[in-house]
Each structure stands twice: as structure tokens, then as C-alpha cells.
Specification:
The protein is α/β, with parallel strands linked by helices and about 300 residues long. Helices cover about 40% and strands about 15% of the residues. The chain contains nine helices and eight strands. Helix 1 packs parallel to helix 2 and helix 1 packs across helix 8. The mean pLDDT is about 90.
Length: about 300
């Protein structure tokens, strides 16, 4: 991180779940690009149990050793007071807040018919409520700044998933949470633009604790040590850092898929073919109508793991 300067010079960034994997990659790259980083992580196991500050502290130590600025936060992102504490950590440590990157998550993979209430609640809580709580607190701060006449150039970067865009067999709760995050992003973009805040989401594919066991073959590192490791988690960071920078002010309300060296913009739900009778339908009439609509509509992308 020589010089610790780049496209995010002076910006203050909160990154949740930044102790390992994709979040760690975000933290290190933001620091390389000149940002001051709040590294949030409760240090839990993959299923959300346990907790330790050591993974987040190691990331902070790495940033500071390279000449950057970073602090640890160990609050629970899905706890309202914890979310407020996280935003306050940034303001107390660095005097401002410019970017929130919501990355924290857990998995409790089950087939839908086997998913328990506690598993459903845990996944929805960390992913969806965690995205809501932290950003809600940050948004209140930014709105206050804007209403006070201060210039705001802030960013929300959320983490959805291919599972949230297309669905994934055995991941009903995770898919539902990630789909909710994608739509939450659209609402944030629509509502927060007036205050100088953009909101975008990524749907990343990379090797993490969540993916390396479920998709072991796909996520395996290349045998050739010199080959490009497409599934390395740090490959996701450049797009997130750009989305967090002043350069991205014209981009909002979009979901980007990112994998290795590939970046694409997702084409979400759109209004499709329609038929308007101009009167109430009789149920028996609708078979041919629906068949016609489906014939004229594009085929849906397959659910991950189906077939």
C-alpha cells in the first residue's frame, strides 16, 4: 500500500464483516486507495455463533503497518444499538462518514422443506436487517448533513448474490434475504439521491467460507501458482472501491455481478408482455392468455443448482 493514496483519498468507509474473505479484501483495497476504514466484524463462525475481535484487528494491523488508518468495531450489525455504535465509531475516530459497505452475512443452508424457523430468522436477521440497520443510521446522519446545507457525496454499497437474483437450491432463506437486499438498494437509491447519496449492490462470486465447502470444485484455486486465481476474494474489491469513490456519483440503483476479472450489470425484473381485456377475466379464459404471454416472454434464467 505504498503512499496509501488513490481514488478514495480522505474518505471514511465502514465495511461490515470485514475480518475475512471478501470484506477483508474490501478493507485492504479501500486503504490502498487512501480511505480511512472502520473494520467491523464480530469474528463469528460461519453459522453466526461465537465471536472474536481478532480477525478484524488483524486487518486493522495490516492496514496500519502499511501506513493507512483503520479502527476495529465489533458490534452486531443487526442490533439497532450496535448499528448506531458502528456509525458513531466512524464519526468519533475520523470525524466523518462517506461510505457504508454492507458485507456481513451468515449461512444456514437447508432445502426449503427442511428449513427451521430459527435458521430462517437468523439468516434474514443478519443479511437483510443488518443491511437495513447500519445504513438506516448512516442515512439519518447524511440527511442531517444535507438539511444543514453541507455538501454530501456519500455511497451505499450492498451485497446481494446470484442466489438473490436467480435463486439457489438449498438456500431459500439466503436467496430471499439477498433478493430483499437487491430491492432495498433500489429504494435507497430512489429516496436518498436528494441528499447526495447513491446506492448500488454487488452480486459477487468468490472463494469464501460460505462458498468453498458448498461449491468446492468451482471455487478451487488453480493448480498453477502463476495462473490468475479468478475465485480469489480480493478480485471483488476494485469494483466496490470504485463504487465508493467520488468517480461513481452518476451511478445509482444498479446491481453489478462480479467474478474474477468479469464485471456485468444485472438486468432485473422488467415489465413484460401484457394483454388487457379491458374488463374482468373469467378464470376459464386465462389458460390461452397466459400461454401466449409466456411464449412472448424471455425464458427465465435457471435457478442455481436446479436440474
Amino acid at each position: 500500500m505504498p503512499g496509501m493514496t488513490g481514488i478514495c483519498d480522505g474518505r471514511v468507509v465502514i465495511i461490515t464483516g470485514a475480518g475475512r474473505g471478501i470484506g477483508r479484501g474490501h478493507a485492504l483495497e479501500f486503504a490502498r486507495q487512501g480511505a480511512k476504514v472502520v473494520v467491523n466484524d464480530i469474528g463469528a463462525e460461519l453459522d453466526g455463533t461465537g465471536g472474536s475481535r481478532s480477525p478484524a484487528q488483524q486487518v486493522v494491523d495490516d492496514i496500519v503497518a502499511a501506513g493507512g488508518e483503520a479502527v476495529v468495531n465489533g458490534d452486531d450489525v443487526a442490533d439497532w444499538q450496535g448499528a448506531e455504535n458502528l456509525v458513531r465509531t466512524a464519526l468519533d475516530a475520523f470525524g466523518r462518514l462517506d461510505v457504508v459497505v454492507n458485507n456481513a452475512g451468515i449461512v444456514r443452508d437447508r432445502m426449503f422443506v427442511s428449513c427451521g424457523e430459527d435458521e430462517w430468522d437468523a439468516v434474514i436477521r443478519v443479511h437483510l436487517k443488518g443491511h437495513f440497520a447500519v445504513t438506516r443510521c448512516a442515512a439519518e446522519h447524511w440527511r442531517g448533513q444535507a438539511k444543514a446545507g453541507e455538501a454530501v457525496d456519500a455511497r451505499i454499497v450492498n451485497t446481494s448474490s446470484g442466489a438473490g437474483l436467480l435463486g439457489s437450491v438449498g438456500q431459500a432463506a439466503y436467496s430471499a434475504a439477498k433478493a430483499g437486499i437487491a430491492t432495498l438498494t433500489l429504494v435507497q437509491a430512489a429516496e436518498m439521491g436528494r441528499y447526495g447519496v447513491t446506492a448500488n449492490a454487488i452480486a459477487p462470486a468468490a472463494r469464501t467460507r460460505m462458498t468453498e465447502t458448498v461449491f468446492a470444485d468451482t471455487m478451487a484455486a488453480p493448480e498453477d501458482a502463476g495462473a490468475f486465481d479468478a475465485m480469489a476474494p480480493e478480485n471483488v474489491a476494485p469494483l466496490v472501491v470504485w463504487l465508493g469513490s467520488p468517480q461513481s456519483a452518476h451511478v445509482t440503483g444498479r446491481v453489478f455481478e462480479v467474478e474474477g476479472g468479469k464485471v456485468s450489470v444485472a438486468d432485473g425484473w422488467q415489465h413484460g408482455p401484457e394483454v388487457d381485456k379491458g374488463a374482468r377475466w373469467d378464470p376459464a379464459e386465462l389458460g390461452p392468455v397466459v400461454d401466449d404471454l409466456l411464449a412472448r416472454a424471455p425464458a427465465p434464467a435457471p435457478v442455481y443448482g436446479a436440474g
